[in-house]
């Protein structure tokens, strides 16, 4: 059985402990990950939650109420970025919400996180995560991944607050 979340974290280097989440995809992919992001926020309340995603998604990431900042990350199509511009000590926890590896597993592993939460893949046998099911809905997939590591996650937790500003496309 996998150990549950470490709510305290190490904060190695004297700073605030950090959770790095890889989801370097588009708007729909970010929205499908909202329940998992919120579950991570609840599981690691004292951590800075950093989302590796395209810069233009920062306002939507902020609207989730789960993400503290966006680390710019993108690649053509659905590819995994070749590198992340991560600074400071390694993340306390790295979470692969990009895919089922191994490129995304390796990208996060190179940063030296204390824990890597990811789906199992034969190409990265060192990752002992739950199995990947291709036919599974994205929201449920990411929540099941977290539940596999002892983190309570509800795939129905996806409502975003109404923006304060008027719509740039009224009636849309």
Low-confidence parts? 1-11
Overall 3D shape = globular
Number of helices: 5
Strand % is: 5-15%
The end-to-end distance, rounded to whole angstroms, is 47 Å
Alpha-carbon Rg, integer: 16 Å
Helix content: 10-25%
How many beta-strand elements? 5
- The overall pLDDT average reads 88
CATH class: Alpha Beta
| CATH topology descriptor | Rossmann fold
How many individual domains?
1
Question: Which structural class best describes the helix and strand composition?
Answer: alpha/beta
How would you characterize this protein structure?
With 172 residues, the protein is an alpha/beta fold. The protein has five helices and five strands; from the N terminus they run βααβαββαβα. It has one domain: Rossmann fold. Strands 3-2-1-4-5 form a five-stranded parallel sheet, with helices on both faces. Helix 2 packs parallel to helix 5. It is globular and about 50 Å long.
What's the layout of helices and strands?
Layout: E1 18-22, H1 27-32, H2 34-43, E2 48-53, H3 58-63, E3 69-72, E4 93-96, H4 103-109, E5 115-117, H5 138-147
Parallel strand pairs: 1-2, 1-4, 2-3, 4-5
Helix pairs in contact: 2-5
Give a concise summary.
The chain is an alpha/beta fold and about 170 residues long.
Q: Which features would summarize this protein structure in a list?
A:
single chain; 172 residues; alpha/beta; Rossmann fold; five-stranded parallel sheet; 5 helices; 23% helix; 13% strand; globular; disordered N terminus
């Amino acid at each position: 059985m996998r150990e549950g979340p470490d709510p305290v974290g190490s904060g190695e280097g004297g700073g605030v402990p950090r959770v790095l989440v890889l989801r370097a995809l588009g708007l729909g992919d970010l929205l499908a990950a909202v329940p998992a992001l919120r579950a991570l926020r609840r599981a690691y309340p004292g951590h800075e939650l950093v989302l590796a995603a395209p810069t233009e998604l920062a306002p939507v990431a902020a609207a989730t109420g789960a993400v503290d900042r966006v680390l710019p990350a993108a690649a053509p199509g659905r590819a995994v970025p070749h590198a992340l511009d991560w600074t400071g000590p390694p993340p306390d926890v790295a979470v692969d919400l990009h895919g089922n590896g191994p490129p995304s597993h390796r990208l996060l592993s190179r940063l030296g996180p204390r824990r890597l939460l990811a789906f199992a893949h034969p190409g990265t046998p060192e990752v002992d995560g739950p199995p990947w099911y291709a036919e599974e809905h994205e929201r449920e997939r990411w929540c099941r991944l977290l539940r596999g590591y002892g983190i309570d996650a509800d795939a129905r937790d996806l409502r975003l607050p109404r923006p304060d500003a008027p719509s740039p496309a009224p009636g849309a």
